[in-house]
Amino acid sequence: MKNKFTTILIIAFFSINLYAHNMAGFEMVLKPLKDDLLKIEAKMKNSSRKLYGNKVQLVSMVDKRVLLEGYLQEKKDLIVKIPKESYWVYIYIEDNDIVQEGPAPINGFKIIVQSQKNKAFKYCLYLSLLFLILAGFIAMKKIRVYKKLKNS
Protein backbone atom coordinates (compact mmCIF):
# COMPACT_ATOMS: atom_id res chain seq x y z
CA MET A 1 0.00 0.00 0.00
CA LYS A 2 2.83 2.36 0.91
CA ASN A 3 4.61 1.69 -2.42
CA LYS A 4 1.44 2.41 -4.42
CA PHE A 5 0.94 5.70 -2.58
CA THR A 6 4.58 6.69 -3.16
CA THR A 7 4.34 5.84 -6.85
CA ILE A 8 1.11 7.83 -7.25
CA LEU A 9 2.64 10.75 -5.38
CA ILE A 10 5.73 10.76 -7.61
CA ILE A 11 3.58 10.56 -10.77
CA ALA A 12 1.36 13.41 -9.57
CA PHE A 13 4.35 15.53 -8.61
CA PHE A 14 5.99 15.24 -12.02
CA SER A 15 2.73 15.50 -13.97
CA ILE A 16 1.78 18.89 -12.59
CA ASN A 17 2.71 21.77 -14.87
CA LEU A 18 3.17 24.95 -12.90
CA TYR A 19 2.80 28.31 -14.59
CA ALA A 20 5.26 30.69 -12.99
CA HIS A 21 4.75 34.40 -12.74
CA ASN A 22 1.00 34.35 -12.40
CA MET A 23 -0.68 35.48 -9.25
CA ALA A 24 -4.09 34.26 -8.27
CA GLY A 25 -6.57 37.08 -8.16
CA PHE A 26 -4.73 39.54 -10.43
CA GLU A 27 -4.51 39.94 -14.19
CA MET A 28 -2.58 42.15 -16.57
CA VAL A 29 -4.38 43.83 -19.47
CA LEU A 30 -2.25 44.95 -22.43
CA LYS A 31 -4.20 46.93 -25.00
CA PRO A 32 -2.36 48.05 -28.18
CA LEU A 33 -3.43 51.51 -29.37
CA LYS A 34 -2.81 53.30 -32.65
CA ASP A 35 0.59 54.86 -33.35
CA ASP A 36 2.42 51.92 -31.69
CA LEU A 37 1.29 52.82 -28.18
CA LEU A 38 0.42 50.32 -25.47
CA LYS A 39 -2.00 50.77 -22.58
CA ILE A 40 -1.00 48.75 -19.51
CA GLU A 41 -3.44 47.95 -16.69
CA ALA A 42 -3.62 45.53 -13.79
CA LYS A 43 -6.96 44.44 -12.36
CA MET A 44 -8.37 42.24 -9.68
CA LYS A 45 -9.88 39.14 -11.29
CA ASN A 46 -13.68 38.91 -11.12
CA SER A 47 -13.77 42.65 -10.47
CA SER A 48 -13.30 45.85 -12.41
CA ARG A 49 -11.13 47.34 -9.66
CA LYS A 50 -7.80 48.53 -11.06
CA LEU A 51 -4.50 48.35 -9.22
CA TYR A 52 -2.38 51.45 -8.89
CA GLY A 53 0.98 52.34 -7.41
CA ASN A 54 2.57 49.16 -8.77
CA LYS A 55 5.87 49.27 -10.65
CA VAL A 56 5.80 48.29 -14.34
CA GLN A 57 8.86 47.36 -16.39
CA LEU A 58 9.33 46.53 -20.04
CA VAL A 59 12.29 44.14 -20.21
CA SER A 60 14.11 43.14 -23.40
CA MET A 61 14.04 39.45 -24.31
CA VAL A 62 17.28 39.94 -26.22
CA ASP A 63 19.63 41.04 -23.44
CA LYS A 64 17.39 41.37 -20.34
CA ARG A 65 17.87 45.14 -20.03
CA VAL A 66 15.06 47.35 -18.75
CA LEU A 67 13.61 49.25 -21.71
CA LEU A 68 11.13 51.31 -19.74
CA GLU A 69 10.01 51.69 -16.15
CA GLY A 70 6.87 53.34 -14.81
CA TYR A 71 4.10 53.11 -12.23
CA LEU A 72 0.39 52.44 -12.50
CA GLN A 73 -1.54 55.53 -11.44
CA GLU A 74 -5.03 55.81 -10.02
CA LYS A 75 -6.46 58.50 -12.29
CA LYS A 76 -4.20 58.22 -15.34
CA ASP A 77 -3.64 55.18 -17.59
CA LEU A 78 -0.06 54.05 -18.19
CA ILE A 79 0.51 54.43 -21.93
CA VAL A 80 3.95 53.63 -23.35
CA LYS A 81 5.55 53.36 -26.79
CA ILE A 82 5.86 49.74 -27.94
CA PRO A 83 9.57 48.74 -28.22
CA LYS A 84 11.01 47.63 -31.55
CA GLU A 85 12.35 44.37 -30.07
CA SER A 86 10.75 41.39 -28.32
CA TYR A 87 9.97 42.23 -24.71
CA TRP A 88 8.20 41.17 -21.52
CA VAL A 89 5.92 43.34 -19.43
CA TYR A 90 6.43 42.94 -15.68
CA ILE A 91 4.01 44.28 -13.07
CA TYR A 92 5.30 43.98 -9.52
CA ILE A 93 2.66 43.31 -6.86
CA GLU A 94 4.13 43.20 -3.36
CA ASP A 95 6.88 40.54 -3.48
CA ASN A 96 5.50 38.87 -6.62
CA ASP A 97 5.23 39.73 -10.26
CA ILE A 98 2.97 39.17 -13.25
CA VAL A 99 4.74 38.67 -16.57
CA GLN A 100 3.40 38.65 -20.12
CA GLU A 101 4.98 38.78 -23.51
CA GLY A 102 4.38 42.21 -24.98
CA PRO A 103 2.48 42.67 -28.26
CA ALA A 104 4.39 43.62 -31.39
CA PRO A 105 4.23 47.06 -33.01
CA ILE A 106 2.19 47.46 -36.20
CA ASN A 107 5.18 46.79 -38.50
CA GLY A 108 6.51 43.96 -36.33
CA PHE A 109 9.64 43.68 -34.22
CA LYS A 110 13.05 44.53 -35.68
CA ILE A 111 14.73 42.12 -33.25
CA ILE A 112 12.80 38.93 -32.46
CA VAL A 113 13.49 36.38 -29.76
CA GLN A 114 11.39 33.24 -29.68
CA SER A 115 9.62 32.46 -26.43
CA GLN A 116 10.86 29.44 -24.48
CA LYS A 117 7.37 28.55 -23.18
CA ASN A 118 6.78 25.77 -25.70
CA LYS A 119 10.22 24.32 -25.12
CA ALA A 120 9.74 24.22 -21.34
CA PHE A 121 6.27 22.70 -21.76
CA LYS A 122 7.68 19.96 -24.00
CA TYR A 123 10.46 19.15 -21.51
CA CYS A 124 7.94 18.90 -18.66
CA LEU A 125 5.67 16.73 -20.80
CA TYR A 126 8.51 14.38 -21.80
CA LEU A 127 9.73 14.07 -18.21
CA SER A 128 6.19 13.35 -17.01
CA LEU A 129 5.78 10.63 -19.65
CA LEU A 130 9.15 9.16 -18.75
CA PHE A 131 8.19 8.94 -15.07
CA LEU A 132 4.82 7.42 -15.97
CA ILE A 133 6.55 4.75 -18.05
CA LEU A 134 9.07 4.07 -15.27
CA ALA A 135 6.24 3.80 -12.75
CA GLY A 136 4.50 1.32 -15.07
CA PHE A 137 7.65 -0.82 -15.32
CA ILE A 138 8.12 -0.78 -11.55
CA ALA A 139 4.49 -1.76 -11.02
CA MET A 140 4.77 -4.62 -13.56
CA LYS A 141 7.94 -5.90 -11.88
CA LYS A 142 6.31 -5.81 -8.43
CA ILE A 143 3.24 -7.66 -9.77
CA ARG A 144 5.48 -10.34 -11.31
CA VAL A 145 7.38 -10.78 -8.03
CA TYR A 146 4.10 -10.91 -6.10
CA LYS A 147 2.71 -13.60 -8.45
CA LYS A 148 5.89 -15.69 -8.09
CA LEU A 149 5.66 -15.50 -4.30
CA LYS A 150 1.95 -16.37 -4.39
CA ASN A 151 2.51 -19.41 -6.65
CA SER A 152 5.40 -20.83 -4.65
Task: Supply database-style keywords.
about 150 residues; alpha+beta; single chain; 2 helices
Structure description:
The protein has 152 residues and is an alpha+beta fold. 32% of the residues lie in helices and 30% in strands. The chain has two helices and seven strands, in the order H-E-E-E-E-E-E-E-H. It has helices at residues 2-15, 117-151, and strands at 26-33, 37-44, 55-60, 66-71, 78-81, 87-93, 96-101. It has a four-stranded antiparallel β-sheet, with no helix packed on it. Strand 1 (26-33) and strand 2 (37-44) form a beta hairpin. The longest helix is centred in the last third of the chain and has 35 residues, at 117-151. The two termini are 22 Å apart. 7% of the residues are buried.
Task: Give a brief rundown of this model.
This protein is α+β, with helices and mostly antiparallel strands and 152 residues long.
